[in-house]
Amino acid sequence: MQCTKIFALALGWASSLAFAQVSYDLPALESLALGSSKAVQAARNQVEAARYGVTSAGAFPNPELEYLAGTTRARSPGGNPGDARSTSLTQPLDMPWRRSARIGVAEAGLEAATAGNRAFEADLLARLRVRYFEVLRREAELRNAREDVALMEGVRSRIGLRVETGEAPRFELIKSDTETLNAQKNAQAAGFRLEQARSLLRQIVGGALPAEFTLTSRLRDVPALTPLDVVRKELAESSPDLARARAEMVRAERQLDLERVQRWPNLALKASVDEDPDLRTSKVGVVMTIPLWDRRSGPIGEASAQLSRARNELEAQQFSLAQALEVAYQQYEIAQNQVTALESGIVRQAEAALKVAEAAYRFGERGFIEVLDAQRVYRAARAELIAARYELATAWVEIERLRAVPGGRKE
After folding, report:
1. Which N-terminal stretch is annotated as signal sequence (predicted)?
2. Superfamily of domain 24-69+82-403
3. Segments making up each domain of the chain, as ranges
4. Longest Cα separation, the chain
5. Is 197:136 a contact under the CB 8 Å cutoff?
6. What are 290-306's pLDDT values in tens digits?
7. 46 backbone dihedrals φ, ψ, rounded to 5°
């Protein structure tokens, strides 16, 4: 068949391209994404900006220099007209209580930005891992689809011989041609889905990942899972979401302290020199801002409300993470049980049933319909196994996202 020849040539061309592709495993892709992603660099720039914010918060106020010049005219007899000048220097005082509160707000902002960067990187790695395992899933589906094509072409050849010798009706040949074309169509669709998954993975990693690449792992190669009790204990320290929520609460506390100390008087030292044709006057004193009309009740109330919000969000985040962790482990156990059941029994039995049906058909004990039914059952079992392995991998990804252990992956 012409379609079969074209399909075989396409498969051979795709196989020849694999030799020129660069191979990657999951850690290599993670390092590549964290090192080249512009989104990651933008998040890190936010941390750098917060770090400079701490520097700005610790800066002392600059002095103010004022110079005035003019002329004097006598309004009474005996006065001397001439030039008049005035020079003053004012140095605002950065009071310790206000300075420490301001720096505390900036430092808490830096902690929040750092935790936010960790959370962003954890989400990026989670999306990358999901795309990674999706590519592995599509590769497994394509391998199975190619096996189905080879199987149907072998069955079709045997039926063609039987039809030529008169041992089988032509209806079986027509039916086998239809099933072969259907298998080829499924293989073609599986190839398109694989290319789409590869493009989505490259979108996550960035342009540093070449268009032509291969993955060294298989879908069954899911990393080992850390026990639930261990993850529960380390979650409070390792979760970037909790760290960010705690940092936001600390920043709200520092902001409230800052707004309260803003009600205290501001002080500044001032020195001035006044000169006129007759006199030269030097003065040194203190300038005090009296908080008489603005008692900052609005900013204090706003900061108090923000602190209450941050505390409530922290408690909600703690509860949400605990529940999400339980659900992820339950999903992992369910998928693990499905994978075990399919690998140890269902797929093997379906494969054995297919071999028995094919042997019986060769000896004329069963019809072609029984072979097709056995093939459908075997394909469905393999598809369920691939789906279960993918669910197992995505459950592991979600658990690792919730953990987000600082310093990289921890196996």
Report:
1. 1-20
2. Outer membrane efflux proteins (OEP) (1.20.1600.10)
3. 24-69+82-403
4. 144
5. no
6. 888 888 888 899 999 99
7. -65, -40
